[in-house]
Design a protein that fits this description.
mainly alpha; 0% strand
């Protein structure tokens, strides 16, 4: 489901740029590459497909995969810079992995469940542990 940017969203963006234009520029670079990376890693499926598959393969929570992806970027040896990569790209990746993880945490449980089932017959055990039954009882 595509959502439009609202006037309130634009006001927040204008305020953020006024607060720190360099931060805003970095956020915009991250936003610019998000669509390209989404196509590369998740295709036409939900935007968390690769993280769900990673969690399934490693028998961990989906949230753990964001921490692992981020730790790969944080522990990168800056003295052995790859020819086809840059430290700026690395920083933008850290920004996006953090935002993807935060976005996952903000999703309603039912939406997370639907995304997991779309990928295959697997559900993150940490999601089930916190699930509330229809009668209000915890699982």
């Amino acid at each position: 489901m595509e959502e439009s940017i609202t006037a309130g969203d634009l006001e927040i963006l204008v305020g953020a740029r006024a607060a720190n234009s360099a931060w805003f520029d970095a956020i915009m670079v991250g936003a610019e590459i998000m669509s390209e990376r989404r196509k590369k890693w998740s295709g036409k499926s939900n935007p968390y497909t690769n993280f769900i598959k990673w969690a399934q393969a490693e028998h961990v929570s989906v949230e753990q995969t964001f921490r692992w992806a981020l730790s790969l970027k944080v522990t990168r040896d800056q003295d052995s810079e790859a020819v086809d990569d840059s430290l700026l790209d690395n920083d933008i990746d850290k920004l996006n992995y953090s935002a993807l993880g935060a976005g996952w945490r903000m999703l309603p449980m039912a939406e997370k469940l639907a995304m997991m089932l779309e990928v295959g017959p697997w559900i993150d055990a940490s999601l089930l542990k916190n699930w509330e039954m229809a009668d209000g009882e915890e699982n």
